[in-house]
Design goal:
It is built from 8 helices and 13 strands. The protein has about 230 residues and is of the alpha+beta class.
Length: about 230
């Protein structure tokens, strides 16, 4: 029954779809599964062993322990901790925090590397994820050079709504408000006060609405911002 539960877990990941049921069931035998409460810490380097994680439920944030800054956000159906496959040594400067109740599976990086060598589709999938992460980092650096702080914050807010939001009614896009203003400041290389000012301005103009639980906008405002 436990392996069947893990199979249900992996079934929703594009990363494993090309492996087939037999290979997926074999992978389930070497996976560990866990539930993490909101606010909980997920150790990427546990007892000297680095792991690769798969997020089935919830949202987590990856934080740089060196400066306590948020590096990126991971939503359900995605992988994190994949740097363990490419970094030498046992130490990592990243730590993960659950922004809401989460369900994860994880595997030691060495075992994951063996699976990637055996299954080309798995290797290509992980490399694609890693590449997308690098592209996002490059975009952030480019934005820092060529865009002012207000623009960076606005773009982040609309990108967040587009990625994490769900369609409500006919024209509303609504997402859980999981990030503090300090988190957004970290992710946009701005200050908490600037984030507060920009978000307050957008709310006064009726472009976004938000409270402690949710943030939303209209499809029209999102489309207009993307086209501007």
């Amino acid at each position: 029954m436990k392996n069947q539960t893990k199979y249900w877990f992996l079934e929703g990941f594009n990363l494993f779809k090309k492996l087939g049921i037999v290979n997926m069931m074999k992978i389930c035998e070497i996976l560990d599964m866990d539930q993490i409460d909101k606010g909980g810490i997920i150790e990427l380097n546990n007892g000297g062993k680095k792991n690769v994680f798969f997020l089935k439920k919830g949202t987590i944030k990856i934080v740089d322990q060196a400066n306590n800054h948020v590096k990126y956000i991971v939503k359900r159906g995605n992988v994190f901790g994949e740097l363990a496959l490419y970094e030498e040594g046992n130490k990592t400067n990243e730590i993960a925090y659950a922004l809401e109740d989460c369900v994860i599976c994880y595997i030691e990086s060495e075992m994951m590397d063996v699976l990637m060598q055996k299954h080309k589709s798995l290797k290509n999938g992980v490399l694609k994820i890693y590449g997308l992460r690098i592209k996002k980092l490059e975009r952030r650096l480019n934005d820092l050079l060529y865009k002012d702080s207000n623009t960076r914050i606005k773009e982040f807010i609309f990108d967040y709504l587009e990625e994490f939001g769900e369609h409500e009614e006919e024209h509303i896009i609504k997402a859980k408000n999981l990030l503090t203003h300090s988190d957004i400041a970290n992710l946009t290389n701005t200050s908490r006060q600037t984030v507060n000012n920009v978000m307050s301005s957008l709310r006064k103009k009726g472009i976004i609405t938000y409270d402690t639980k949710f943030i939303s906008t209209t499809k029209e405002d999102l489309k207009e911002f993307k086209m501007s």
